[in-house]
Amino acid sequence: MITPRFTRAALEELGIDPDAVPRHVALVMDGNGRWAQQRGLKRTEGHLRGEDALFECVEAALELGVEWITVYAFSTENWKRPKAEVKFLINFNRETIRRRRDELHARGVRIRFIGRRNWRVPKSLLRDMEAATELTERNRRLTFTIAFNYGGRAEIIDAVRVALADGIEPDRLDERSFGRYLYDPEMPDPDLVVRTSGENRLSNFLLWQAAYSEFLFLDILWPDFTRQTLYEAVREFQRRSRRFGGI
Ligand code: FPP
After folding, report:
1. Res. 118 pLDDT band, cuts 50 70 90
2. Does residue 49 lie within any of the structural domains?
3. CA angle, corner 185, sides to 171 and 133, nearest 5?
């Protein structure tokens, strides 16, 4: 079997409580450019190394039994970067999906996308996104969601637009019914949001969904993220006490 899930004993050996593994971990993969610049390399090299770090992280999530991983691959604000980098990032995302789709499928991973589809995203990329989604839609071991052309505020606005177009009665709109208009109504809220590179902010990622998430800000740059980093993030998550507004 590919990437077996750790036994309870193996998790305990790692200092991880098998009954309290976060169900959904969201990742802001920050610092690829700085990682490359520190080594005198082109920023694009940092993104390529970031891809390796990401798929090692997915392997670690499969080992631990994390059921949902969501990554911030391209934000609605990233269009402001220099044209050449935007072009690189679009192609890089396309190539990454093509390169990784089959291995993710073989591991029982379901690939999904969140983000604005009808604005600026090239048609050919949309087709690759749909092909990866369709190929893997019956997989259940882990749902790997790629936030592409994603912004949390844009998601909320888009949800309001759909709700209004749906003719929803104001009295019927509550937190539960609103959730049905988000990009992926099935996605559970993230238990843990991890951001690398020493920046302590959310940058418009999963604004609605992260209301009660635990946050972990790491000083390492994304390409240096390893399986061990995810294990340690889960141990840190388990040291926190979540009260959801109660006592
Ligand atoms: C932030 O680094 C990272 C990105 C903008 C893209 C990261 C994407 C991947 C690693 C691959 C994702 C692709 C798929 C399809 C899952 P930065 O450029 O902001 O670094 P800096 O803050 O040091 O400049």
Report:
1. confident
2. yes
3. 155
Residue 106 burial (CB count, 10 A): 12
Mutating to test ligand 1, I would choose from 222, 224, 225 the residue with most ligand atoms within 8 A of its C-beta, which is 222
Q: In what order do the strands lie in the sheet with 68-75?
A: 109-114, 142-150, 68-75, 24-28, 192-195, 214-217
Q: Is 56 a member of any domain?
A: yes
| Domain-located, residue 48 | yes
The pTM is what?
0.96
Do residues 70 and 187 make contact, with C-beta atoms less than 8 angstroms apart? yes
Q: How far apart are CA 37 and CA 58, in angstroms?
A: 26
71 lines ligand 1 (CB under 6 A): yes
In short, whether 75's Cβ falls inside 6 Å of ligand 1 is no
Cα–chain-centroid distance for residue 115?
Answer: 12
pLDDT of amino acid 1: 63
- For residue 177, the CA-to-ligand 1 centroid distance in Å is 33
In angstroms, the CA 142 to CA 86 distance is 29
Range of the domain at 155: 26-236
Which helix (DSSP H) or strand (DSSP E) does residue 46 occupy?
Answer: helix 43-64
Q: Is the CB–ligand 1 distance for residue 195 below 6 Å?
A: no
* Cα distances (Å, whole numbers) of residue 54 to 45, 138, 247: 14, 22, 36
Contact 73, 30 (CB under 8 A): no
Residue 149 has a pLDDT of: 97
CATH number at residue 97: 3.40.1180.10
- Measured by CA distance, the residue closest to atom 11 of ligand 1 is 51
